[in-house]
Amino acid sequence: xxxxxxxxxxxxxxxEWEVRKDLAAAYRLVSLYGWDDLVFTHxxxxxxxxxxxxxxxxxxxxxxxxxxxxxxxxxEDGQIVDPGATNRVNPAGFxxxxxxxxxxxxxxxxxxxxxxxxxxxxxxxxxxxxxxQTAMLCIPHITFHxxxxxxxxxxxxxxxVADLGDHDIMLLRNHGTLxxxxxxxxxxxxxxxxxxxxxxxxxxxxMGAGHxxxxxxxxxxxxxxxxxGAAHKLAWPALIRKLERMGSDYAT
Length: 252
Hints:
9 helices, 7-stranded mixed beta sheet, alpha+beta
């Protein structure tokens, strides 16, 4: 595997290879935390450079199988651009990702999940509630998009982008979760906090109505939440070390 990775990385820029490794690591971590959904949902990253090219998972692969070299490079329409590429992608699955990447130039990575707790909270009338510190740090970043059916209609992209605006976290009603980051690490840390908050909410409401802090506490935490994305600077390298201690082959 190491030789194959070396051969593969030799055909692309060092910057692209680094993004590939980060995105492959994110796929492995999503699987590790139990947020994957068989071969469905997608994580994507922008390829550095002037071309509007992006990396996405090969269709039909489980998240714990994905490596840096197996990721597929596509254009804004989800069409494969790598000459001789043997893996295929699901263009329909790229609908959401292409909309965000093309509308937000700074969107280096877009993560979309169907994890049960996230879907549950997306279906709650009030969405994410301020029942935990984790939730309170996420709420200022959150917006919503109404469910329109399986995301196959390209017309939905304009509405999704309008709903997203400049937010970094979206609850796709009755569907799942989405996060946006300047890089893979930042998008992942938003997703980690969101999924933790959703898990806490589901557990809390199973016991009955939860306690909501004072408005002053909510306002204070909202101010503190502005730096939430910066947590990836410490957490992402630690997560990479975790994968490496486990002997993961994500970087091949």
